[in-house]
Amino acid sequence: MPETLHIETTVSGRYLVREPSGSGPYPLLAGFHGYGQLAEDELELLEAIAGSRDWLCCSIEALHPFYTRKGTVGASWTTRRNREAAIRENVRYVNTVIAELGARFHLDGTLVYHGFSHGAAMAVRAALLGDHATTAVMLLGGEIPPEADELETMGRVHISRGSSDRLYKLKAFERDCRRLEKSGLPFTPLEFRGGHAAGEGYFPPAAEFLEKLRRF
Questions:
Q1: Cβ(11)–Cβ(19) below 8 Å
Q2: Going by C-beta distance under 8 Å and a sequence separation of 6 or more, which residues neighbour residue 146?
Q3: Is 85 helix (H, G, I), strand (E, B) or coil?
Q4: How many Å apart are CA 34 and CA 197, to the nearest integer?
Q5: 145 exposed, middle or buried (CB, 10 Å; 0-12, 13-18, 19+)?
Q6: Count of C-beta atoms within a 10 Å radius of residue 98
Q7: DSSP states of 28-42 as a string?
Q8: CA-to-CA distance for 48 and 12, rounded, in angstroms?
Q9: 148, 99, 160, 94: which is closest to 124 by C-alpha?
Q10: What CA–CA distance (Å, rounded) separates 189 from 180?
Q11: What are the structural domains of the chain?
Q12: Which residue, of 17, 41, 90, 186, has the fewest CB within 10 Å?
């Protein structure tokens, strides 16, 4: 049998930033896109949340690009292959992005991670395993990773799904809510009309959640 070896190397990550008007300090809203998407997709989602114009919005693109079945370019956070190593690499990547944003912009210390679908797990991992204190995590259409524990370091949580979502099913959503309740975390569950996407019913409660964070 051949011997399996691994070696660390350097790759370039890509992220998009939308700076609000004014001189700051700004709260930071950092997002993770879904499987096969790009940073532009997540940034569009973040910008659609009312009130996000007052936040420094950052959309972080996954390190592993590929061609989708439609022939477009998408990216992925992890697969089953070398999963643990990929998670460590992704967390280091996010740590570096957040640190660079802190050096470039006048931030007020409020950090919210937003994850859609496959990116929801990344948002949780960034909060639990990353170097930066997290104010809140917003999860849309994606579950909390099964290996995640000590969820308390996520701060406050907004967790949501579309009522007809076939990928993030009701059973998984209810299981995640029970995990959050057991942890004692303050969390806001939301089920809106729609599928595996941010339906119209998602945005007003998401905006209200962000607005309340500014009051604490």
A1: no
A2: none
A3: helix
A4: 10
A5: middle
A6: 22
A7: EEEEE--TTB-HHHH
A8: 28
A9: 148
A10: 10
A11: 15-213 (3.40.50.1820)
A12: 186
pLDDT the model gives residue 200 = 95
**pLDDT for res 216:** 60
- For residues 192 and 26, give the distance between their C-alpha atoms in angstroms, rounded to a whole number: 29
ω into 189 cis (within 30 of 0): no
Query: What's the mean per-residue pLDDT of the chain?
Result: 95
Residues β-bridged to residue 17: 58
pTM: 0.95
Q: Are 95 and 127 in contact (CB under 8 A)?
A: no
Dist. CA 191–CA 176, nearest whole Å? 13
- The answer for residues whose C-beta is within 8 angstroms of residue 138's C-beta and 6 or more apart is 112, 113, 114, 115, 123, 157, 158, 159, 160, 206, 209
Alpha helices in 105-183, H assignment, sequence order: 118-129, 170-183
- Show Cβ contacts of residue 163 under 8 Å, excluding neighbours closer than 6 positions: 191, 192, 193, 194
Q: Which of 145, 161, 216 is nearest to 186 (CA)?
A: 216
Tokens coding 107? 């931030």
Pair of tokens at residue 24: 């700051």
